[in-house]
Amino acid sequence: MPTLRDIKRRIRSIENTQQITRAMEMVAAARLRKAQSRVEAARPYGLKMQQMLESLAVAAAGLHHPLFEERKVKTTLLVVFSSDRGLAGSYNSNMIRNSVRYLRQAPPGSVRLGIIGKKANEYFKRRSYPIDFAITDLGGKVDLTRTRRLALDITEKFYRGDVDEVKLLYTRFVSMVSYRSTLERFLPIEKPAGADDKAVTDYIFEPDAEKIFTSLVPRYCVTKILQAMLESFASEHGSRMIAMGNATRNAKEMIDNLTLLRNKMRQASITKELIDIVTGAEALK
Amino acid sequence: MFKLSVVTPERVVFEQSARSIIAPGSEGYLGILTDHAPLITALIPGKLSVTDDASQTQDFALSGGFLEVANNVVTILADAIERASEIDIERARRSEARARERLSHRSDPAIDVARAEGSLARALNRIRLAE
Predict the structure, then answer these.
(1) CA distance A17 to chain B (A)
(2) pLDDT tens digits, one per residue of A178-193
(3) Secondary-structure class of domain B2-84 per CATH
(4) Cβ contact (<8 Å) for A215 and B39?
(5) What integer pLDDT is reported at residue B90 of this predicted model?
(6) Are residues A193 and A261 located together in one domain of the fold?
(7) Does B9 touch chain A (CB under 8 A)?
(8) From CA A67, how far away is CA A272, in angstroms rounded?
């Protein structure tokens, strides 16, 4: 049975925790707003790029590019987007669970991992999975130059034949409260469907479709990676905000219950003392 | 009059109506007026001039990208773009020096000559426009 003092001490300790979680919630909310507006600002470019790629594919059906080349898949590079910091609810554990599930169903030894974020890196390093590269110092910030470099490195691995397929596992930011783990093939690039008769415009290409195509494709790759990164980071901040919001609420509930208990106990001890005094007084009569 | 929208990988820079633009195409500068034929072209580092419906012309430093014209909508997918008045000239000078430094050792296999040349072209373009 805890004493009155124990309970007071616990209440104080929970209040301290609550202050921290509330502050973290607020920070995450501010970051989320920024990250969300960046995701939304980046979408038009990706969309337009996709459209151009389709227009090009329609106009010049015979286009070839090494990044479209389907090879027999011996090695897959799975790029996992996790976060550097924890306390983001189920964000990292979901990512890790989904990548483990992917690794289990794939033929053993055929998957190499590319890791973004400390959390996934710690997990997979400890269990000695084959890690191809790990980026653990982004700190939830998206840097265009580094993203370009990363996209270049990944495509380079594909060119060289180190890997025959690249997949991205990231969290798509659907809305403030909804995030979806997404597994997407990055390389080889899916042949754009295009050929949608109604939308076909008869474009003039300058210098020619093939040259434009060659310079468009690397940019397309950068956009893809950038998009995955922006989506993931927005989801991270969102998950953290929700997790910390819940923690703050739980703390409040615990404090309420403990306060009630404390008041009851105080009341009980007062009653007990009163009874003692009254019985003492009675005995003296 | 046509609609012009300029987007970079990071954001929509602007959307406005324009009377004409002059853009640095990979085959030379090209002008676009209303009712231009559908066109897709690559852009190289250079000056983008936009004349709006009040006949005011503004210059931008463009670092390459793509341009699409369709049905009086012009879309520019820019790698990076700055208003001529907003160029950080110090930064441009620094990257010019860096690129020249790298190009002076062009025989070194560790140096990506194409990238250094690209970065030099972008830096020179920014400096030219800022001045």
Answers:
(1) 37
(2) 888 889 888 888 776 6
(3) mainly beta
(4) no
(5) 85
(6) no
(7) yes
(8) 82
Complex-level ipTM: 0.79
The CA R_g of chain B, rounded to the nearest whole Å, is: 16
pTM summary value = 0.82
Q: A142 vs A8, A82, A133, A186, A223, CA distance in Å?
A: 45, 13, 18, 19, 12
Beta bridge partners of B81: B62
Strands B39-52 and B12-25: antiparallel
Strand partners, A178: A175
- Tell me the domain boundaries of chain B: 2-84, 88-130
Instruction: Specify the CATH number for the domain of residue A266.
Output: 1.10.287.80
Which residues in A lie closer than 8 A to residue B10 (C-beta atoms)?
Answer: 38, 41-42, 45, 144
- Digit-coded pLDDT (tens) for B52-73: 888 888 888 888 899 999 889 9
Contacts of B13 in chain A (CB under 8 A): none
Mark whether A89 and A164 lie in a shared domain. yes
Is the residue at A30 inside a domain? no
Query: Do the chains contact at B37 and A204, CB–CB below 8 Å?
Result: yes
CATH value at residue A172: 3.40.1380.10
Verify whether the Cβ–Cβ distance B9 to A52 is below 8 Å.
no
- A39 and A154 co-located in one domain: yes
- Structural domain tally of chain A? 2
Q: Note down the domain range covering A250.
A: 4-24+243-284
In this structure, the number of other CB atoms found within 10 A of the CB of residue A142 comes to 18
Radius of gyration of chain A (CA): 28
